[in-house]
Design brief:
Blueprint: H1 2-8, H2 14-24, H3 35-48, E1 58-65, H4 81-91, H5 95-103, E2 105-113, E3 125-126, H6 144-163, E4 168-174, H7 179-189, H8 206-222, H9 230-237, H10 240-254, E5 258-261, H11 264-276, E6 284-286, H12 293-302, H13 318-336, H14 340-343
Parallel strand pairs: 1-2, 1-4, 2-3, 4-5, 5-6
Length: about 350
Amino acid sequence: MLQKTLEQIQPISKDWLDKAWKRLDNLTKPRRSLGRLEEMAARIVAIRQEERPEVVKKEVYVFVGDHEVVTEGVSAYPQEVTALMVKNFLAGGAGINVIARCAGARVNIIDIGMKQDLQDADGLIKRNIKRAAGNIARGPAMTREEAEKAIDVGIEMANRAYENGTVMIATGEMGIGNTTPSSALFAALLPAKVIDVTGSGTGLDEEGLRHKVKVIEQALEINRQSLSDPIPILAALGGLEIAAICGLCLGGGARRLIVVVDGFISTAGALVAMRLNPNVRDYLFFSHQSSERGHGAFFRMEGLQPILDLDLRLGEGTGAGLAMQIIENAVRIYNEMATFEEVGIEPGA
């Protein structure tokens, strides 16, 4: 599934971009005066290859996975919080539930790597591959086969969205301790110094942050023989939810969906996808810049710009849910604003 998906991801069409800009430049406004909203609209026209693309169905995919690296003391919260938050998601009481309701988006919760087996959780999509990723400070997070299975689950969810008529999908995640593997992935894939891509996560103090940096450096050292290509790096340093997000990005690109990437952890998954096929970045809209230190480093080094910067660090897909609403505004401007010709105005008059 992975190889077929990678082969399907093509760069967006310059002809479709030109068509979009022709209409945008003739809308009743000074040329390019709506800035990045116009850039988003043009890219969406090229992604969808439609004269008037519409964003009717939107979905958020929250992948959940645990991490044994929490035993190293890298999180301010215990691992048990992961399962408790999943129950909160399913009950509709979490931040992503509220924001998704505002955006008119459906929320899907997928157990891809939870330690606890919530057998009776109504509404939980069960795709568990492993009961928590391994402790990356002591060895690999997972095998290559497990990583590829998790990627396939993400691709499966993108295909499912496409078949449901969904146009815009968003990444989300939950997993206590998952900023640690994310920082490790940024360090290996950008590449960057660990200190430059590591933040306080759920609220570590300065001493806790220094310890977290050391744990990540240890993870890079102990897994150094695997740090050559994207999938071995993902398997060694990542997490099952991060791998699934990678797959969702790839599957979305292959299906010409609008893919809205959430924060720091989701971006780690997106970065793996970009390393596997650089064309996928045409389909990715990075929703916001997290307050996590490494997120800014990613945007600078990759030459990308987030839609929002609200000092968010919650995850779950909350930033992506907010950005979905802005992206929909951009599409509606493109579709619904009148042209100069339609109102009888000479451009520049």
